[in-house]
Write the structure tokens for this entry.
Amino acid sequence: EAALAGMKARGLPLIDEQPRIGAGGSKIAFVHPKGGRGVLIELRQALLRPDSGKLFQPINWTIHNGEHWALVGPTGSGKSLLVDTILKKNPLTGGRILYHFDPIPGAGEPGRPFFNRNDIIHVATSGAGLARDQSSGFHQARWHSMMELESPVVADYLCPETIHRISPFEVIDAAVPHLPEFPEMDPVISLMDIRHLLTRRVQHLSHGELRKVMIARALIQRPKLLILDDPFAGLDTRSRKMFRRTLENLLASGGIHILLVTARTEDIPGGVTHILRMDDVRLPAQNRKSRLVASTGNQTGADENALPEPRPEFFDPPPCNLPEGSDAPVIIDIKNTCVVYNGVTILDHIHWQVRQGERWAILGPNGAGKSTLLSLILADNPQAYANDITLFGRKRGTGESIWEIKRPVGWMSPELQIYYKKDATCLDVVCSGFFDSIGLYIACRPRQIEIARGWMDVLGITDIENHLFAQISEGRQRIALLARALVKSPRLLVLDEPCQGLDRSTRERTIRLIGQVCRRMNAALLYVTHDTDELPGVITHILALDAGKIAGCGLRKAGPARE
């Protein structure tokens, strides 16, 4: 109201003094000068139709110059749908969306129904995986040295020619001005702490390292609107703190407007001015940051979005009766193992054993070697044959197939979701866990379908059984992948960042479920995370890696249980 009065006092002509309704019915006026100056994007009576067929109520939302928004809400509430709408990937069923990045002088309608390629850049959590595997179609390619030459080094990936998609063989007229250099490149490289990665192959980066490179690539281009989807996902504690400071500096400096998409309000950095909270098929709440956080108690969603309690009848087959403790059989035995790529040592003389029934948390910073260690256990890395590794009592390289190794293992990873074909349904994805395939190529038996549906019911995703996996939110994709890992009731459960991108309520229920599953099936667990607050109470041991070496290994110290 003070801003409105001040602009009127200075004689500035204003339009659209329409108030927005925030939490608790409070009204806040948003104004912009006549002619659309000061407006970036506006949605007018926009109707979104999610995969469920239900309609959101019409959305009226305007992003103005100088505003930085956080889009929050529980898993599956429609955040991804709204982002896809802004990116023109999801057509509106009614209303309009207008972009005011480059207003046309003298035009009657200042906004355009389209935007230029670099006006908006979206960094999604799955984008890092897509960047790594743009030259390959299978997830094991990361571990195959034969794919090395097809993967650019990070410096090439960040250069103007690559970003602008210019072929090195293209003949350019001398009269055509040279591609603009990016003066921001060097400062961004320093800010994201990736200078040591410039000579590394993109193919060989860890998920967290690649995430930082993708964000740096977006910042270098200085888009008018940068959409960051769960930007702290996959980053270790140090990188998370560093990137939060970077974001806060960007938010304060201006030049780039940021829309941050997250299920966790604790991830919202200082400098975000407004929050849009999505609730499933309901009118989103809009408000200034301070008022909305106060009115919601810093919660991201209602209890109705939580997972149901697991039902024991869906655990099939019956739990295995193997002993726990020091006399239990060794299922993973790794001796003096080293992994080297292009002269860079990823794992350095690793000695480690896991017994049946033990539950290990694997911790360490980005690039510590966690994913590489898992690749040896999951039979995805051919360097296992050059090392002394025994899995489930059988030494690698003695004639076993990778399918025999994978049979007793259930696995999920945040990168797995990008490899499924676009026509795969969520039920197909869950059922593929019976065959350890990325895609369903064998018809399931009726009992297998029953088990898959049972786990989907336990995890609260029966409503998306027939939805295309590629079209649901990334949070719900991860829940479907967790169901995929559980359908076999495996002897070993390998979970790589299972709670990444989940809202608080779903995260807590998922952690409790993992503990119940491990106890009932006496399954061994390998649980990778950067957030020690997410460790299930069932964890018995800790393995800490740093720079490819074991920095700590042993029993977990007593602490508060999560179940």
